[in-house]
Amino acid sequence: MADGQDATTGDKAALLEEFAKLRHGWGLEATNLRGRIGPQLRRLCGVRADAGDREIRRRVLAVVRELSAAFPEPDRLALGFALATAPGTQLPQLTERVDLLAERFSCADRTARRRVVRAFDRLAEEAVARLAAGPETGEDLDKDWYASRLEALLRLDCATPELIERRTIVSRRDGLRRIAIRFSLPRPDGAPPGAAAADATVAADVQQGARIESREREGEAHFRFVLTLPRPLRQGDQHTFTMVFRVPDSQPMRPHYAFVPLLACDEFQLRVRFDPQSPPASVWRFQRVAPRVLNDRMVPGEPLELDEAGEVVLDFSRPETGFGYGVGWAL
Predict the structure, then answer these.
(1) Which of 61, 74, 48 is nearest to 266 (CA)?
(2) Is residue 31 domain-shared with residue 68, that is, in the same domain?
(3) Is residue 139 part of a domain?
């Protein structure tokens, strides 16, 4: 046990040293990254010996975002500022980025530096755990990727409701070829459990970037679609595809749309287009709502104004997994 603990301590110390070297200067925006990452980071991120700056940058960033997905926001910000990956932090010196972080947190520079050290210490712990676990075997269609961006357009001005989702995903392993996407159609407000569940259905299609391999129904009104990508992805590779979901005219729909991420998602943008002939009485934004609350009748929040196209557009940064983000309306 002592030998194992010593090895773990040594791995963590080595990773901390390599992370410290990486975040100095331009951070991940630097050139010649091949000479700036050590053997532990190479192994952790699956960096090949012939990898160029662009591939190294993508792979390291993908792993850092994945390992820190459950971190508190201050820790994630500290990592992003230190590595120069957060918007507006592409500066040539780490001290400049720490100054920006101090301004963001309204704290002293010394406190901001301690936040950076704390965040990387926690990141190194997660990295050591992954290295100790060894390479994963088999495929996990639900966990082998995450979304760097999801753009959802819900059209309520059509004959039947139509949802268009454009996802940009990032592979978490080499050889990713299949993923799973979920869609739920909860029973309408006031309906008893099981009501209309047997008839609940949704039509799904891929507009570009993948094809549907299989469709499964899970529970009363939850659907799982297995997609095959056009080519295998390597760890850190990005790929964009677009899916369309249509609700049959006879199928009631709850007066809200909620995105409940089960995997990390960096950015989520939602646009809802209402029927100009039948505009809602009120529209409101909600975020970080527990799924059980989504199953109840929603309490209206601060009202939103429709634009001249009858639309509302909302942006959510890093929505937390397991909680609902979206728009509700009253007719």
Answers:
(1) 61
(2) yes
(3) no
Q: Within 13 A of 157's CA, how many CA atoms are on the CB side?
A: 12
Tell me the mean pLDDT per 10 residues along the chain, length 331. Answer: 50 91 93 88 82 87 86 92 93 95 94 95 91 67 90 93 95 89 72 48 90 83 89 90 87 85 91 92 92 79 90 93 92 82
Across the chain, which distance is largest between two alpha carbons, in Å? 72
What pTM, to 2 d.p., does this model score?
Answer: 0.65
Q: Which two tokens stand for residue 329?
A: 């309306």
How distant, in Å, are the alpha carbons of 49, 59, 99, 173, 204 from that of 34? 8, 12, 27, 20, 43
Is residue 146 helix, strand or coil? strand
Side-by-side strand order, sheet with 324-330: 256-259, 324-330, 282-289
β-bridge partners, 328: 256, 284
- What angle, 0 to 180 degrees and rounded to 10, lies between the N-to-C axes of helices 94-105 and 73-82? 150
- Domain boundaries, position 199: 145-330
Q: Where are the beta strands (DSSP E) in the chain?
A: 145-155, 162-171, 176-184, 203-208, 211-218, 222-233, 238-246, 256-259, 265-273, 282-289, 311-317, 324-330
Among 99, 133, 167, where does a domain finish?
A: 133
CB 180, CB 225: distance < 8 Å: yes
185 and 209 inside one domain: yes
